[in-house]
């Protein structure tokens, strides 16, 4: 905790011998600090990545070995991944999850951009109030509203399907609106005014000038809403918990160990199937993720 | 916009009306969503909390009966309140401190900083259900690697997810593993602290602790506050990991909420059980109202400090 980030100021001493000794000590100390810092970082990296490696190694063990404390598989039993699909309807869960995630992402992007643009770039009375409403929606625990929402969807005969999870995204997602607005505030007003003077209406300004500039923010929001849906457990539990045909991967995985597999190896294979898309996409689009996260927190 | 008004000779009133129409058009989906998915259910939650609604037959007004049941009647609710309180008071601060520490280490790295940041952030994206299942397996007292490693160090590991005393600390370790989002936010804030401030402090003879206390901390404190409040609100909602951990660790097909011994029963879980297992929708709504009041109190703290949202900075 007692560390600094500023580089130590360079000593402006001549090469006189006592000074040289001091300089030697300082550089040795700096080298030791360098090693210590990087050792801590490597240790942390092992702790962060270790569980994922463990999941993978366990997922290819034989039934017998996954009951032991062995860490390295004696026999790489790749067929576990086929067995998983045969022991539980993992395929159905996957299809449902992809449907939910794709639909929710498309709906979120479509609906949130104009709202964010109005909040960041249009002048109107009550704009700050409107933005406070967005923050309130973002901060509100979903559990607060869940009973009336369930009753509402039940009256529309949509409980037991993924529609209650997708349809609300058509009306703007608070977190996405927030993130897009933060990004839009960084777009220089001059660009927009130039287009306005050229006679563009606000819709044209948005689609022709702002949207192309927004690509990184759109990618971040799209990724976040995709994985939000992919990772969601509470929503599917509430609305499709009673209809296994509409279960998502999160729901199925939660009961996988207790209802389908005695051994850990198959459970870990199913776990890795749920994690894999996140890991793969992350390594291709990590910049977008990290820029997105930074955008939500750095404005102080 | 001001320039536009001067450049265009159209009458001002007509332009203002058109502007209002345009704003309405842009905001329309959000306004509908706000009414249907926030205002309506919120009003209904408050109303239902004063009824005996059971989700099927029509609700009847029962006054404060649900709230009285909450205060003395529900045998499990104080368990749930204590557990959620523990998570907010221990897990969230632990997460903030850990993320801050990791961010400070990462900020100092000269080689491979962005690689390390990537690795530290990755687990934050892991699906909570998958992460929880994996942790229960890793912390399994018989076959898991954690107690084996502890054993090599001469420590007799606890029962973790199977022990009432260790289940919440185990969930805390799971939360630390996934605290990459906070870490990225802190790291960005740390890298924005102006280097001149450190140089000035150093010239004044400030040691590294003083530089942290009087330069770093004041500069990043709005971000820390933002992360703490959002962390607290996430702590109040804590549901998935607790529910899945108890299910998997218990190993029984019959759900055992709060296993072991009610130690992981959180407030939102009790709300879920009341509403969707016992069909006491009225009582569940009373719990929801309590959750709403507490979450909003923390949100107000955040907005009072007006950090993180730069409402004032929006172009006028």
Automatic annotation (TrEMBL), chain A:
Transmembrane segments: 32-57, 98-119, 131-153, 165-184, 205-227, 266-285
All residue ranges annotated as the ABC transmembrane type-1 domain in the record: 94-285
Location (main, coarse): membrane
Domain of life: Bacteria
SUPFAM superfamilies to which the protein is assigned, alphabetical: MetI-like
Disordered, as annotated region: 1-24
PROSITE patterns given in the database record: ABC_TM1 (PS50928)
Keywords from the UniProt entry: Cell membrane, Membrane, Transmembrane, Transmembrane helix, Transport
Location(s), subcellular: Cell membrane
Membrane-topology annotation of the record: Multi-pass membrane protein
Similarity field: Belongs to the binding-protein-dependent transport system permease family.
Descriptive protein name: Carbohydrate ABC transporter permease
Organism for this UniProt entry: Streptomyces hokutonensis
TrEMBL record, chain B:
Topology of the protein relative to the lipid bilayer: Multi-pass membrane protein
Pfam families referenced in this protein's UniProt entry, alphabetically: BPD_transp_1
InterPro entries: ABC_transporter_permease, MalF_N, MetI-like, MetI-like_sf
Superkingdom of this protein's organism: Bacteria
Keyword Protein biosynthesis: no
PROSITE patterns: ABC_TM1
Stored Gene3D superfamilies: MalF N-terminal region-like, MetI-like
This protein's UniProt keywords: Cell membrane, Membrane, Transmembrane, Transmembrane helix, Transport
Annotated localization: Cell membrane
Listed transmembrane segments: 21-43, 86-107, 119-141, 170-193, 214-239, 281-303
Domain spans labelled ABC transmembrane type-1: 81-302
Family: Belongs to the binding-protein-dependent transport system permease family.
PANTHER family: ABC TRANSPORTER PERMEASE PROTEIN, ABC TRANSPORTER PERMEASE PROTEIN YESP-RELATED
Protein name (database record): Carbohydrate ABC transporter permease
Native source species: Streptomyces hokutonensis
């Amino acid at each position: 905790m007692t560390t600094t980030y500023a580089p130590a100021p360079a000593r402006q001493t001549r090469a006189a011998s006592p000074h040289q000794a001091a300089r030697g000590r300082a550089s040795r100390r700096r080298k030791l600090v360098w090693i210590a810092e990087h050792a801590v970082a490597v240790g942390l990296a092992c702790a962060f990545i270790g569980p994922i490696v463990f999941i993978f190694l366990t997922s290819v063990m034989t039934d017998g070995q996954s009951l032991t404390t062995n860490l390295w598989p004696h026999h790489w039993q790749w067929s576990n991944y086929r067995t998983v699909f045969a022991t539980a309807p993992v395929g159905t869960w996957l299809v449902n999850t992809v449907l939910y995630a794709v639909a929710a992402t498309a709906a979120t992007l479509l609906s949130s951009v104009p709202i964010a643009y109005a909040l960041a770039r249009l002048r109107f009375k009550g704009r700050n109030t409107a933005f406070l409403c967005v923050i309130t929606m973002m901060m509100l625990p979903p559990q607060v509203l869940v009973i009336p929402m369930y009753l509402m969807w039940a009256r529309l005969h949509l409980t037991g399907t993924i529609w209650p999870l997708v349809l609300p995204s058509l009306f703007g997602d608070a977190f996405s609106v927030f993130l897009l607005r933060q990004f839009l505030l960084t777009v220089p007003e001059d660009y927009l005014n130039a287009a306005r003077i050229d006679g563009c209406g606000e819709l044209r300004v948005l689609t022709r000038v702002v949207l192309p500039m927004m690509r990184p923010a759109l990618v971040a929001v799209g990724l976040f809403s995709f994985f939000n849906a992919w990772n969601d457990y509470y929503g599917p539990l509430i609305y499709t918990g009673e209809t296994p045909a509409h279960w998502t991967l999160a729901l199925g995985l939660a009961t996988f160990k207790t209802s389908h597999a005695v051994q850990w190896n198959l459970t870990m294979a199913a776990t890795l199937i749920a994690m894999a898309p996140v890991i793969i996409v992350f390594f291709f689009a990590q910049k977008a993720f990290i820029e997105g996260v930074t955008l939500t927190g750095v404005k102080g | 916009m001001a320039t536009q008004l001067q450049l265009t000779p159209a009458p001002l009133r007509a332009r203002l009306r058109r502007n209002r129409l345009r704003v309405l058009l842009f905001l329309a989906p959000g306004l509908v969503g706000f009414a249907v998915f926030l205002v309506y259910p919120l009003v209904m939650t408050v109303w239902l909390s004063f009824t005996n609604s059971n989700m099927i037959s029509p609700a009847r007004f029962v006054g404060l009966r649900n709230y009285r049941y909450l205060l003395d009647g529900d045998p499990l609710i104080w368990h749930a309140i204590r557990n959620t309180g523990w998570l907010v008071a221990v897990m969230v601060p632990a997460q903030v401190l850990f993320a801050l520490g990791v961010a400070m280490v990462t900020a100092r790295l000269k080689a491979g900083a962005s690689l390390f940041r990537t690795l530290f952030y990755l687990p934050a994206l892991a699906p909570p259900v998958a992460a929880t299942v994996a942790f229960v397996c890793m912390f399994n007292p018989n076959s898991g690697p954690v107690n084996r490693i502890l054993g090599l160090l001469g420590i007799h590991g606890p029962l973790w997810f199977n022990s009432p005393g260790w289940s919440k600390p185990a969930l805390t370790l799971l939360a630390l593993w996934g605290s990459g989002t906070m870490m990225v936010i802190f790291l960005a804030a740390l890298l924005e602290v102006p280097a001149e401030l450190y140089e000035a402090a150093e010239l004044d003879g400030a040691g590294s602790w003083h530089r942290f206390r009087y330069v770093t901390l004041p500069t990043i404190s709005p971000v820390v506050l933002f992360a703490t409040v959002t962390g607290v609100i996430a702590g109040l909602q804590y549901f998935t990991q607790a529910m899945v951990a108890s299910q998997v660790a218990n190993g029984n097909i019959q759900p055992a909420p709060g296993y072991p011994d009610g130690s992981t029963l959180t407030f939102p879980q009790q709300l879920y059980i009341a509403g969707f297992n016992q069909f006491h929708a009225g009582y569940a709504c009373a719990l929801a109202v309590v959750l709403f009041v507490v979450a909003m109190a923390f949100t107000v703290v955040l907005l009072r400090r007006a950090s993180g949202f730069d409402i004032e900075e929006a172009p006028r």
